[in-house]
TrEMBL record:
Cytoplasm as UniProt keyword: no
InterPro entries, sorted: Acyl_Trfase/lysoPLipase, PNPLA_dom
Organism: Vitrella brassicaformis
Domain PNPLA span(s) in chain numbering: 1-203
Region annotation (Disordered) ranges: 376-410, 430-455
Record carries keyword Lipid metabolism: yes
Pfam families registered for this protein in UniProt: Patatin
Motif GXSXG per UniProt: ranges: 19-23
Any one GO BP annotation for this protein: lipid metabolic process
UniProt keywords, alphabetically: Lipid metabolism
Name of the protein: PNPLA domain-containing protein
Biased composition, class Low complexity, residue ranges: 376-387
Length: 498
């Protein structure tokens, strides 16, 4: 929806931006003007590309304490060797600060006049906490990311609670165990220090951050909702949710009162009250009730609600476009433009985005053998004759698009393309050690991929693979695959398995 605000030139119409949970990150990209593309790519490119490195539901058993080791021993090992179900480090450290970085200089300049206020839940004060630069909660991009972590930290599945190191005057100071990187340790008995109170996701005490705006004397509030009207907002906890909350709040953090609050669905009742208040204020077009005046925009009821842990690139992209269309139809000033939101959304966010491979990657994202990426552009120098040549692979589509402007620009390949190449190499019984020869110009060899969104084939130059004699003697497919992956990392740039 913030993309529609940018399209309608309404960016500077707001004095303050409030964000909770994922809305905090969206608000930051909105302030810097990095929407709809840079900010949008975080959600429809980078997170689906991470796959299980970002969300891995197989780790949910750890959240309830089931595993070969139990209690604090397993938690300590998990923090050192593993990851939680929701890996916020990938989003807030790798993506936001490295691969799709927030423009910090521009953010700092604009935030002086249009501040970002991040809402989190204080687990000692039992109320919403507003974090901003004015109170000293963040003065750098890493500190801003840590405040976002506090607002996004879903209890039990996103890691330990956050305790800010900053000296913000609006954060309750409490005495607790010493901690590293703002996160509490698992074991008791460590030296105690005074620091900010532990925090978690805003959903506990302020799922929609309008209450903080009202408390700070906002007179006109625009609320961009993520869930449509008519969906069920209350209901009993599932068994797995009860187990996760019990272990997180009772066993690990000794916060029995908060567990009781969650078990009684206090946070869901609060969310339902927010929806009722916002809908009533939105329907009060006369303004007779006086300030604060509120306008809440929610997705259309006939749209499929996107799941919380959705990792489909197409589903996330379509949800982004649906939100754009909805906000555009509500806020556009020209009556003749109302109802054209879906068409404008397709113009701003065309289908060609999905037809191409995901956003370029210039850094190595994954260290395991199942995913490979390169961290530097490919060198133009000739290959070392003593080293194996680069594996044959699809050409950089960005180079092809330069020759044919009608083709969309991409600079990495899809999973299926890379896997197809590996499968062809692994199925081959003959490994050539001769010098590479260019393919016949009239030959169709190598036409294995169609241009994204177009019906014509893209020619792929095929190189003969040279391997060392040790590879020739090896009969183990795993060893061949490991060496091919290593060659891929060393010799190719701009490619990532998704």
């Amino acid at each position: 929806m913030v993309c529609a605000l940018k399209q309608l030139n309404l960016t500077d119409c707001f004095d303050v931006i409030y964000g909770s949970s994922a809305g905090a990150l969206v608000g930051a990209y909105f302030i810097t003007g990095q929407v709809p593309y840079e900010g949008g790519q975080v959600y429809y490119d980078w997170l689906p590309a991470a796959g299980k490195d970002f969300i891995n539901t197989a780790r949910v058993l750890r959240s309830v304490g089931l595993g070969p080791l139990g209690g604090d021993v397993w938690d300590w090992l998990r923090d050192k060797l593993g990851k939680p179900v929701l890996n916020l480090d990938y989003l807030l450290r790798d993506v936001v600060q490295k691969y799709q970085p927030l423009d910090w200089e521009r953010f700092r300049d604009k935030e002086r006049h249009q501040p970002l206020k991040i809402v989190a839940s204080g687990l000692v004060s039992r109320q919403a906490v507003v974090l901003d630069s004015h109170h000293g909660n963040f003065a750098s991009l890493p500190e801003l990311a840590e405040c976002m972590r506090a607002s996004m930290l879903l209890p039990g599945i996103a890691g330990p609670v956050v305790r800010l190191n900053s000296t913000g005057s609006n954060v309750l100071r409490v005495t607790g165990p010493a901690f590293d990187n703002g996160r509490m340790p698992r074991f008791g008995g460590e030296p105690t220090v005074e620091s900010g109170e532990p925090m978690a996701d805003a959903l506990l005490y302020e799922p929609i951050p309008y209450r903080s705006a009202v408390r700070e004397n906002a007179t006109h509030i625009l609320v961009l909702r993520t869930r449509p009207d008519g969906v069920k907002v209350t209901g009993a906890f599932k068994l797995i949710e009860k187990l996760i909350m019990a272990r997180f709040f009772k066993a690990k953090n000794r916060m029995r009162d908060i567990y009781t609050y969650m078990k009684r669905l206090g946070h869901k009742v609060l969310y339902a009250e927010d929806i009722l208040w916002l809908n009533n204020r939105t329907m009060d077009i006369t303004g007779a009730a006086g300030p604060p005046h509120a306008l809440a925009i929610s997705p259309l009821p006939d749209r499929t609600e996107i799941a919380r842990y959705e990792m489909s690139r197409e589903a996330i992209f379509n949800a982004l476009r649906d939100g754009f269309a909805r906000a555009y139809d509500v806020l556009v000033a020209d009556p003749l433009e109302r109802g054209r939101g879906a068409q404008v959304a397709k113009q701003v966010l065309p289908d060609a985005i999905l037809d191409t491979a995901p956003a370029p990657v210039t850094h190595s994202l994954f260290a395991n053998g199942d995913r490979a990426a390169t961290s530097a552009p490919a060198a133009a120098a000739a290959a070392d004759p003593l080293q194996p040549t680069a594996p044959p692979c699809p050409p950089n589509a960005a180079q092809e698009s330069a020759a044919d402007p009608s083709l969309p620009t991409v600079s990495r390949f899809t999973t299926s393309e890379v896997r197809r190449w590996f499968r062809n190499q692994m199925d081959s019984r003959v490994w050539s050690f001769s010098e590479p020869q260019p393919p016949d110009a009239d030959s169709d060899e190598g036409d294995t991929r169609r241009a994204p969104g177009r019906g014509k084939k893209m020619r792929i130059d095929v190189l003969l693979l040279r391997l060392r004699s040790s590879l020739m003697k090896s009969q183990a497919r795993k060893r061949r695959r490991r060496q091919l992956l290593q060659l891929w990392r060393n010799k190719r740039a701009g490619a990532v398995l998704v």
